[in-house]
């Protein structure tokens, strides 16, 4: 508005037009301190504006701000004054209530926006944490099943990063353990079949002198062996193959 004032004449007619554009009260003060144009009170043209701090601040090249009543019958006004050409000052006035209402609406919008932003962050965080913890939960469940001897457990080997490396390592470990267990089971079954087919009785005695194992040929005489060994002071444990 100060730039427009520098290229336009007749400030008494310019003030109402600028007021209509900005929805404010516009006052143009000349270098001599007299009112050259006022959008609300044209009768004040030619009268001195009086002692106004915001106008004095604008004359010193700054931007003057003030809150006060311009008339007794109106609410407090928020005033802003800026310097213009030829030593003039242009001042805008708006009811303080309008400023407070605008500030309150802006604050409410910021609060609502912040609330939606926080909600969006929480949802995104939940999705991210869910995507991160789901493979960990699957691997924890798989490790528990591996500990119980179930080696056919699907693992999220397609996970990226360290989780994928850990899942592939656990899958390889499960395969190795299953292969070793199957090998030991086959050897046990083979040994049991060979020894169980013998005509002679076989009794396995441990390092402590106790009977560790009695095979089928001696099963019928297990109690007899147990009593004889007990009389000899030896501890007896009998297992059926």
Largest sheet: 5 strands, antiparallel
How are helices and strands ordered from N to C?
HHEEHEEEHHEEH
Mean pLDDT, rounded to whole units? 78
Q: What fraction of the residues are assigned to beta strands by DSSP? A: 5-15%
Spatial separation of the terminal alpha carbons:
106 Å
Describe this structure in words.
Helices cover about 50% and strands about 15% of the residues. It has helices at about 1-5, 10-20, 55-60, 95-145, 160-195, 220-230; strands at about 25-30, 35-40, 65-70, 75-85, 90-95, 205, 210-215. The strands form 2 sheets. Strands 2-1-5-4-3 form a 5-stranded antiparallel β-sheet. Helix 4 runs parallel beside helix 5. The longest helix is centred in the middle third of the chain and has 52 residues, at about 95-145. About 15% of the residues are buried. Mean pLDDT is about 80; it is low at about 235-240.
């Amino acid at each position: 508005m100060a730039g427009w004032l520098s290229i336009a004449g007749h400030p008494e007619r310019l003030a109402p037009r600028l007021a209509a554009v900005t929805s404010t009260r516009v006052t143009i003060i000349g270098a001599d301190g007299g009112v050259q144009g006022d959008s609300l009170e044209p009768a004040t043209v030619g009268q001195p504006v009086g002692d106004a701090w915001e106008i004095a601040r604008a004359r010193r090249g700054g931007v003057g701000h003030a809150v006060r009543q311009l008339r007794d019958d109106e609410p407090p006004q928020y005033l802003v004054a800026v310097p213009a050409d030829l030593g003039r000052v242009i001042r805008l006035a708006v009811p303080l209530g309008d400023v407070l209402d605008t500030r309150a609406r802006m604050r409410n919008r910021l609060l609502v926006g912040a609330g939606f932003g926080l909600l969006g962050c929480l949802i995104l965080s939940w999705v991210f944490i869910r995507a991160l913890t789901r493979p960990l939960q699957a691997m924890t469940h798989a490790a528990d099943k591996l500990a119980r001897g179930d080696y056919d457990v699907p693992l999220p080997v397609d996970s990226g990063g360290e989780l994928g490396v850990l899942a592939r390592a656990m899958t390889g470990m499960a395969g190795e353990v299953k292969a070793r267990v199957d090998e030991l089971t086959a050897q046990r079954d083979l040994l049991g079949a060979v020894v169980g087919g013998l005509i002679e009785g076989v009794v396995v005695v441990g390092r402590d002198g106790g009977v560790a194992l009695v095979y089928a040929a001696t099963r019928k005489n297990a109690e007899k062996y147990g009593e004889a060994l007990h009389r000899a002071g030896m501890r007896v444990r009998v297992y059926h193959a």
